[in-house]
Amino acid sequence: MAVRRLIGAASTVGVLSAASLLGLAGSAWAAGDDEGGSEWVTLSASGSGDEVVPDGKGEDGAKLTASISLAPDGRMTYTIKVTGNDEDIDAAHIHKGADGESGGVVVELDAEAIAQGEAAKVELEPDLAERIIKNAGNWYVDVHSKSFEDPEGVARAQLENAEQADEPAVIDTGDGGQFAAAQEAPGAGALVAGGLLIAAAAGGAAVVRRRCGTGS
User: Fold this and answer.
1) Which of 47, 140, 153, 214 has the fewest C-beta atoms lying within 10 Å of its C-beta?
2) Are residues 61 and 148 in the same domain?
3) How far apart are CA 151 and CA 51, in angstroms?
């Protein structure tokens, strides 16, 4: 009876240990490995010079696409691509304004990173971040050059939730981009480790049983 209790205890400890490890992996997945990465929301935008308000004030043939990851606490990463422009982009912003409306600047973006096709980061006030997340269509991205200074722009694109967005007319080829995407699932290493621990626990219990059976 004592041997059977020992076997049972060993099996229980092994299974509980494995379950604890998997539980920790699940918690890490839920929390996000990047301090809340699972809360990130993906926004996109696709537009052109034709969408600059008033109509016809943008650059003919210029197109703009944006890919944005935004967290409720204000962290934001983005990649913006502009094509068909004759002059270098020297300014870029997010503005408050619904489709067809012009509004004031609310977020200053990195024009140099945009010109180089690189991802960039910016910090927003949490209240502003949450407002953009809840009503993305009330905000737009525009870019400027020497001949197309604010409030006019080279091109403009209205923000929208990526789940509602159509495929952009211009594919984003910038370096970096969606940093949050890799944080949305538990690490494969953690799951494999959990599986190995379960297997080890089961194997250990089997060995104890065999040894006890041989000795009886």
Assistant:
1) 214
2) yes
3) 13
